[in-house]
Amino acid sequence: MKEKILEMEEYAKEKNxxxxxxxxxxxxxxxxxxxxxxxxxxxxxxxxYSAILMASxxxxxxxxTIERDEDRYMEALKNVKAxxxxxxxxxxxxxxxxxxxxxxxxxxxIFIDAAKAQNTKFFEKYKYFLAPTxxxxxxxxKFHGYVENKDKIESKNLRSLVSKIEEYIEFLKNNQEFxxxxxxxxxxxxxxxxxxxx
Length: 198
Known about the structure:
Elements: H1 2-15, H2 22-34, E1 39-43, H3 49-55, E2 62-67, H4 70-82, E3 89-93, E4 107-112, H5 119-126, E5 130-138, H6 156-173, E6 178-183, E7 189-194
Parallel strand pairs: 1-2, 1-4, 2-3, 4-5
Antiparallel strand pairs: 5-7, 6-7
């Protein structure tokens, strides 16, 4: 599996597919181990890189991962199968905002790593599927350093996207239901837990 992971890192670099930074996935894998996380939902599979690493942490970890891009979905399926994890990872081909999950299922960890402009919508939709002691982790909170240096951005689209990420950070900071901790790891991570569990 190690070879496959390296192969996927190469593929991502060549095809310019955004995959999670190593320090960030190491943080999440450690979290899965330490908090006995079993049921994981991932918004944004890309080529299946993070899903494979999360599912491989422990024997009883199961990942449902959602991807709307068909090429990436097919690539993720192929990679999951190559790692022999098709019994532990369910790859769903759909836009995450359109997916209807069973209300019975609660996730110990929800990982948001998809269209950054939709982070708040993803959070609001999927918080209902979070277990009482669960956690929502969001990647790319710093967005390659642009969030701290917005005034230097020339592209209007990029500036608009960074504004959306800033709005999401504010949404997390002011959220009445969740307590969020921000980590300066990789491209920036936020870790949100229900306040009523304190």
